[in-house]
Design the sequence.
């Protein structure tokens, strides 16, 4: 049986882990250290960052377009 992952209610909403990873990075921590602290692999950390970056970029573009009107 295949288990489906829950999708975010809003397409630009960060998952609970994404802000946590971003906060650690903002404090200057390295990805391997954050991964170890959160019990995740470095590859998972890269995935969180990639997805968060995409969501934040999309949200910023929409916000900029809305300011034009």
Sequence:
């Amino acid at each position: 049986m295949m288990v489906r992952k829950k999708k975010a209610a809003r397409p630009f909403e960060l998952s609970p882990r994404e802000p946590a990873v971003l906060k650690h990075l903002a404090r200057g921590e390295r990805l391997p250290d954050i991964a170890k602290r959160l019990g995740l692999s470095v590859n998972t950390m890269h995935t969180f960052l990639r997805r968060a970056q995409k969501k934040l970029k999309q949200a910023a573009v929409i916000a900029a377009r809305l300011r034009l009107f």
User: Anything to note?
Assistant: Residues 17-67 form one domain. Residues 42-67 form the longest helix (26 residues).
